[in-house]
Amino acid sequence: NGEKSTKRGIICNAVIFLGVVVVLASGNHDSQFNSATQLFHNLFEPLFLFFTLCMAGAFAFIYLVALRSEKMEHGRLGLTVAAGLVGCATQVFAKAMSECLKDGGWSHLFTWFSILLTIVLALSQVLML
Known about the structure:
single chain, mainly alpha, 5 helices
Protein backbone atom coordinates (compact mmCIF):
# COMPACT_ATOMS: atom_id res chain seq x y z
CA ASN A 1 0.00 0.00 0.00
CA GLY A 2 3.01 2.30 -0.25
CA GLU A 3 3.39 3.03 3.47
CA LYS A 4 6.89 3.26 4.87
CA SER A 5 7.90 2.35 8.39
CA THR A 6 9.29 5.23 10.37
CA LYS A 7 11.77 5.12 13.21
CA ARG A 8 9.08 6.53 15.50
CA GLY A 9 6.61 3.78 14.52
CA ILE A 10 9.17 1.04 15.10
CA ILE A 11 10.06 2.45 18.52
CA CYS A 12 6.37 2.68 19.49
CA ASN A 13 5.80 -0.94 18.43
CA ALA A 14 8.85 -2.04 20.42
CA VAL A 15 7.55 -0.24 23.54
CA ILE A 16 4.14 -1.92 23.16
CA PHE A 17 5.77 -5.33 22.66
CA LEU A 18 8.01 -4.92 25.69
CA GLY A 19 5.04 -3.75 27.77
CA VAL A 20 3.08 -6.87 26.85
CA VAL A 21 6.06 -9.10 27.68
CA VAL A 22 6.50 -7.43 31.09
CA VAL A 23 2.78 -7.70 31.90
CA LEU A 24 2.64 -11.37 30.92
CA ALA A 25 5.84 -12.26 32.74
CA SER A 26 4.91 -10.48 35.97
CA GLY A 27 1.25 -11.49 36.05
CA ASN A 28 -0.36 -13.72 38.66
CA HIS A 29 0.08 -17.27 37.40
CA ASP A 30 -1.81 -18.81 40.31
CA SER A 31 -5.21 -17.66 39.16
CA GLN A 32 -8.45 -19.59 39.54
CA PHE A 33 -9.02 -22.44 37.10
CA ASN A 34 -12.23 -22.45 35.04
CA SER A 35 -13.67 -25.41 33.16
CA ALA A 36 -14.98 -25.13 29.60
CA THR A 37 -18.54 -25.26 30.91
CA GLN A 38 -17.92 -22.39 33.36
CA LEU A 39 -16.33 -20.30 30.63
CA PHE A 40 -19.27 -20.94 28.32
CA HIS A 41 -21.68 -19.72 31.00
CA ASN A 42 -19.52 -16.62 31.58
CA LEU A 43 -20.23 -15.55 27.99
CA PHE A 44 -23.82 -14.82 28.98
CA GLU A 45 -23.06 -12.78 32.09
CA PRO A 46 -24.60 -9.27 31.75
CA LEU A 47 -21.31 -7.46 32.44
CA PHE A 48 -19.43 -9.48 29.79
CA LEU A 49 -22.20 -8.88 27.25
CA PHE A 50 -22.22 -5.14 28.04
CA PHE A 51 -18.47 -4.73 27.56
CA THR A 52 -18.52 -6.90 24.44
CA LEU A 53 -21.21 -4.70 22.89
CA CYS A 54 -19.29 -1.56 23.88
CA MET A 55 -16.10 -2.87 22.28
CA ALA A 56 -17.95 -3.96 19.14
CA GLY A 57 -19.60 -0.53 18.87
CA ALA A 58 -16.28 1.26 19.40
CA PHE A 59 -14.63 -0.98 16.82
CA ALA A 60 -17.36 -0.34 14.24
CA PHE A 61 -17.27 3.43 14.82
CA ILE A 62 -13.48 3.71 14.67
CA TYR A 63 -13.19 1.39 11.68
CA LEU A 64 -15.82 3.33 9.71
CA VAL A 65 -14.23 6.68 10.59
CA ALA A 66 -10.81 5.33 9.58
CA LEU A 67 -12.13 4.14 6.22
CA ARG A 68 -13.84 7.46 5.46
CA SER A 69 -10.93 9.65 6.48
CA GLU A 70 -9.23 11.51 3.67
CA LYS A 71 -6.02 11.99 5.64
CA MET A 72 -3.73 8.99 5.63
CA GLU A 73 -2.62 9.66 9.23
CA HIS A 74 -6.19 9.54 10.55
CA GLY A 75 -6.94 6.35 8.68
CA ARG A 76 -3.76 4.69 9.90
CA LEU A 77 -4.41 5.75 13.50
CA GLY A 78 -8.00 4.53 13.32
CA LEU A 79 -6.99 1.14 11.96
CA THR A 80 -4.32 0.83 14.65
CA VAL A 81 -6.88 1.51 17.39
CA ALA A 82 -9.31 -0.92 15.77
CA ALA A 83 -6.56 -3.55 15.63
CA GLY A 84 -5.94 -2.95 19.33
CA LEU A 85 -9.61 -3.60 20.10
CA VAL A 86 -9.46 -6.82 18.10
CA GLY A 87 -6.27 -7.67 20.01
CA CYS A 88 -8.17 -7.36 23.31
CA ALA A 89 -10.77 -9.83 22.10
CA THR A 90 -8.01 -12.14 20.84
CA GLN A 91 -6.43 -12.18 24.30
CA VAL A 92 -9.75 -12.98 25.98
CA PHE A 93 -10.47 -15.94 23.73
CA ALA A 94 -6.85 -17.14 23.75
CA LYS A 95 -7.04 -17.26 27.56
CA ALA A 96 -10.37 -19.10 27.35
CA MET A 97 -8.81 -21.52 24.87
CA SER A 98 -5.88 -22.24 27.18
CA GLU A 99 -8.24 -22.79 30.13
CA CYS A 100 -10.33 -25.20 28.06
CA LEU A 101 -7.25 -27.12 26.96
CA LYS A 102 -5.97 -27.34 30.56
CA ASP A 103 -9.35 -28.80 31.47
CA GLY A 104 -8.98 -31.42 28.74
CA GLY A 105 -12.18 -30.13 27.20
CA TRP A 106 -11.52 -31.28 23.63
CA SER A 107 -15.04 -32.70 23.47
CA HIS A 108 -16.66 -29.42 24.56
CA LEU A 109 -17.92 -27.25 21.70
CA PHE A 110 -16.72 -24.06 23.45
CA THR A 111 -13.10 -25.29 23.19
CA TRP A 112 -13.34 -25.48 19.42
CA PHE A 113 -15.20 -22.15 19.28
CA SER A 114 -12.38 -20.52 21.29
CA ILE A 115 -9.70 -22.00 19.04
CA LEU A 116 -11.46 -20.89 15.87
CA LEU A 117 -12.25 -17.41 17.17
CA THR A 118 -8.69 -16.90 18.41
CA ILE A 119 -7.31 -17.78 14.97
CA VAL A 120 -9.83 -15.60 13.11
CA LEU A 121 -9.31 -12.61 15.41
CA ALA A 122 -5.51 -12.88 15.30
CA LEU A 123 -5.50 -13.07 11.50
CA SER A 124 -7.86 -10.13 11.16
CA GLN A 125 -5.70 -8.10 13.55
CA VAL A 126 -2.62 -8.78 11.45
CA LEU A 127 -4.47 -7.90 8.24
CA MET A 128 -5.57 -4.55 9.72
CA LEU A 129 -2.00 -3.53 10.39
